[in-house]
């Protein structure tokens, strides 16, 4: 259940703020405490997250840096693999296989997107399932969709943690996910479906999109377009989860300026979904570390 302070927090525009930044900070403190406890019990090392960055895209480099900073805050180690823009699919896969075979590495993150000449899906699927802490492999998606154990994609997993923390009811609700990417929209839909929501997946080419969204109790914006989901499309009391972030426009995928007043609750941009993506990645890496330790010392 949510703590009283967070549950009571309201924005001046109306709906309750689903404060991902504060929640992520709390999760990071819990992770640090768990790692310190493991060290007291004799753990010889800390969890290690390997991040692979191909090319020199500034935005991707910033995201990798943010994840490295989160590792430092939580007592983990970050191993950065920097590869040139000219890296081939085969060379990238070889780097991933090397990390798969390294017992000192517990989680592997391939920063998306990679250069267009690389087969990104093939490289994602080269990541070992037990080190797929970002939840990007086809096998991990399939297992998660079928209700089996696997790390969920980090952003949808973070969204589910926000929903659970604030006590948002999912079962029986009409949820609309706007976006169908393999690492956000599709896994988000399956996570909601597995929690007994009635889920509609839409995208930029969906016909009569406004009418579909007007019938939604929960709206997830994951289409990657600034303010694509208009405020007038939102029904009174709906829960809005905005997974988009467009720094130049300083907004997400939902027009919160015109929707927050009448909605029941919403994730702010920034400070909502983004911090919880990284927190989920850290938590998954810790869990991978603990599972690896259990296999060595059952």
Largest sheet: 6 strands, parallel
Helical segment count: 10
Uncertain segments of ≥5 residues (pLDDT<50)? 1-10
Instruction: Provide the CATH top-level class of the largest domain.
Output: Alpha Beta
The shape is globular
Question: What is the gyration radius calculated from CA atoms?
Answer: 19 Å
DSSP strand tally: 9
Work out the helicity level: 40-55%
Which structural class best describes the helix and strand composition?
Answer: alpha/beta
What is the overall pLDDT average?
93
Strand order of the largest sheet: 1-9-8-7-5-6
> What number of structural domains do the residues give?
2
Order of helices and strands: HEHEHEHEHHHEHEHEEEH
What is the CATH homologous superfamily assignment of the largest domain? NAD(P)-binding Rossmann-like Domain
Task: Describe the structure in your own words.
The protein is an alpha/beta fold. It folds into two domains: 42-143, Leucine Dehydrogenase, chain A, domain 1 (Rossmann fold, 3-Layer(aba) Sandwich); 154-274, NAD(P)-binding Rossmann-like Domain (Rossmann fold), CATH 3.40.50.720. It has helices spanning 4-8, 20-40, 58-74, 89-100, 120-124, 138-145, 154-165, 185-194, 209-214, 273-296, and strands at 16-17, 48-54, 77-83, 107-110, 174-178, 198-202, 218-221, 239-242, 265-266. The strands form two sheets. The chain has a six-stranded parallel sheet. Strands 3-2-4 form a three-stranded parallel sheet, sandwiched between helices. α8 (185-194) links the parallel β5 and β6 (198-202). The radius of gyration is 19 Å and the shape is globular. The two termini are 33 Å apart. The model is unreliable at 1-10 (pLDDT under 50).
């Amino acid at each position: 259940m949510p703590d009283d302070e967070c549950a009571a927090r309201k924005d001046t525009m109306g709906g309750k703020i689903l404060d991902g930044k504060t929640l992520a900070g709390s999760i990071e403190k819990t992770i640090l405490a768990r790692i310190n406890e493991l060290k007291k019990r004799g753990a010889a090392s800390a969890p290690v997250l390997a991040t692979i960055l191909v090319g020199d895209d500034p935005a991707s480099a910033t995201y990798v840096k943010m994840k490295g900073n989160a590792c430092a805050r939580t007592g983990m180690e970050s191993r950065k693999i920097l590869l040139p823009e000219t890296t081939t699919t085969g060379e990238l896969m070889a780097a991933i296989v090397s990390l798969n075979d390294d017992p000192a590495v517990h989680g592997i993150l391939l920063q998306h997107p990679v250069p267009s000449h690389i087969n990104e899906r093939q490289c994602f699927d080269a990541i070992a399932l037990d080190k797929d802490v970002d939840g990007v492999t086809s096998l991990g998606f399939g297992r998660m969709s079928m209700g089996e154990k696997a790390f969920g994609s980090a952003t949808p997993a973070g969204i589910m943690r926000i929903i659970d923390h604030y006590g948002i009811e999912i079962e029986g609700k009409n949820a609309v996910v706007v976006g169908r990417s393999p690492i956000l929209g599709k896994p988000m839909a399956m996570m909601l479906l597995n929690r007994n929501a009635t889920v509609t997946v839409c995208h930029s080419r969906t016909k009569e999109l406004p009418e579909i969204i007007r019938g939604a109790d929960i709206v997830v914006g994951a289409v990657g377009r600034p303010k694509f989901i208009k405020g007038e499309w939102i029904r009174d009391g709906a829960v809005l989860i905005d997974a988009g972030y467009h720094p130049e426009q300083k907004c997400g995928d939902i027009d919160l300026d015109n929707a927050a007043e009448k909605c029941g609750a919403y994730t702010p941009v920034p400070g909502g979904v983004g911090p919880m993506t990284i927190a989920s990645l850290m938590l998954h890496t810790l869990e991978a570390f603990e599972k690896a330790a259990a296999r060595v010392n059952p």
